[in-house]
Amino acid sequence: MQFQELNLSAPLLEAVAQLDFTEMTEIQEKTIPLLLEGKDVIGKSNTGTGKTAAFSIPILEQMEPENCGHVCALILCPTRELAMQACDEIRKFARFKKHVHPVAVYGGSSMERQIYQLKNGANLVVGTPGRVLDHLRRRTLKLDQLQTIVLDEADEMLNMGFREDIEAVLAQTPEERQTVLFSATMPPAILAITKQYQKDPVLVQIQSAHRTVDAVAQYYVSVPMGRKADALQLLLLAKQPNSSMIFCNTKKMVDELTEALCQRGFSAVGLHGDMKQLQRTQVMNGFKSGRNTILIATDVAARGIDVKGVDAVFNYDLPQDHEYYIHRIGRTGRAGKTGTAYNILSGRKQEQEMREISRYTKAEITEMAVPTSKELRATAIVEEQEKLMALSQTEVSEEALELTETLLQQTDSAKAILAAMVQKHLDEATKNLPTFDIPKPIRKGKRAGVKTVRVRISAGRKDRMAPNFILGALVDATGMAGSEFGKIDIYDQYTTVEVPVTESDFVIDAMQNGKINGKPVSVRHYEERDGGGRSGGYRGRAASSGPSQRHQLRAGHAGVHVEGRSVQRRGGAGRQPAEAEALSGDAGGQAGGVQKVPRLHGQGVPPVHRGAAGGEGGGSRPRLHHPLRRGAGGDAVAADGAGAGAGPLRGGIRHSGGLHGFLPLRPGHARGAVHSKVM
Predict the structure, then answer these.
(1) CATH fit for domain 452-538, picks 3.30.70.330, 3.40.50.300, 3.40.50.2300, 3.40.630.10
(2) pLDDT higher for 49 or 380?
């Protein structure tokens, strides 16, 4: 349906024609006739479907010189940006209706200036709920003759906590008014408002969500945690959008990402709710003018912003609500144009969320590989080749020709001269390209049979390191599953961790300048000359949930490293012990099987690995009433059927529930004994 069919007044039709509005959108086609009849309407529609024109055209059509000497219409918007945008669009429609004076009122702007505008003929007000209520309380805004009130993006206003303000505003409007509500979703709170403040409203619901996403090509990349910024940089360089919007879930992330991209040479600006109005205005002006090509924003800050010509949308963080995803990608692919959306994911949880979004939008979201540095360089070379070929078609001066002849006379190889010139161009074209690549995240089940190497972390027992601290930091920094890491050996001064050989460089890079348990650490490849000293060891199928996970050492599964020698601990009375090297200074012997026992009065009973002279114990079970005693010898723990060793033993290690690493015992504790609190 075309606007010409609506029988609008000539000034309004002329304005619509100058704006190149010919065919109405679905929401406009269904809503405008109802509003012209004076009916209350509930419009369920998403961002970018033409809602502003849908409610502003009927309002302007009804505003004639004889009946608009007061405020005739009020439009409430959730954000300052949306209020300014809606007011600007209304001014465009009203350009030939000189008696219409739209005014925008919102926080962060001069109250005095707004008061002046309201007192000097304002008859259509667009504003945020809080500032409108301020003017009502000051009596600088009167709504006693209001004809129409519009709640635009009503769901967002409720999410932002404006319900009481909205109700306070509605309470000061005439009973006989037209109430229009637009919302992307219909939660119970919205339905409650419609029931209380609207009269027999007509519901207009369109399925434009799927139409919007159909016009957008959607992709996602999966990267290890901690590499999202790198992936974003590679995507921006590879796709080279003229303008793009990047969405984050928090204000902090907006600031951090903006700083990171600016440091990497991109023209990026951030937008969020903590910015002052002057800053927000400058940001939007810079982006709309093309001075800045990248806008990084939160959902709330970007809600309602209409920026034409956005080539690509990047979801740095996936939105919490699936509707927000539609709002985000709807920033591109508008007005019949196609657009592109890229989603950057880390971890299986986000991949699952992406699948849910795909089902919700009924759109295909295709996985793609992150561009590599080699691909970027190849593209740059091709582009430079095209430039050089174009350069060869340009006219040259006689001076240039003479210099060329001179150079050819002075060298035997014209090819060498050309190659040197080409090399200079290539160096210039590729000097700012990244040299790193992003490995594919390791999927579950790929650990078996993977070749591993050890990396060295510059923190150990003296720094109160524990396996769960180290593993949690590795998982957080790399995004790899905890099960992808192998044995963790904690020494006095450092710690070694087994990692897949293909990911060792990535792990080292991801952990640089990182902290474990509050201590800054450095990470490098482990070398054999680093060996020596005592350690506590941890090996097992570690959970990948991060540092909060309590990693328990289980009988028959954990490895213990003592003074460079490995001892396997096995549980279960009567089981044959694993073969192990004798501890330094001990005279041989095998310990019997050891059984863990529960905590008793806050003290665990340790399993025993005898290395003292003479003894071969059968399947022993430590007695609950015999804890290790200071200064005890080889029979430090009495056990049924165990032979006592001779002479005091030195040193030893202690382990507490698998959570705090292995710590040296106090002098006098038995060497070869393991003190383990059973959790």
Answers:
(1) 3.30.70.330
(2) 380
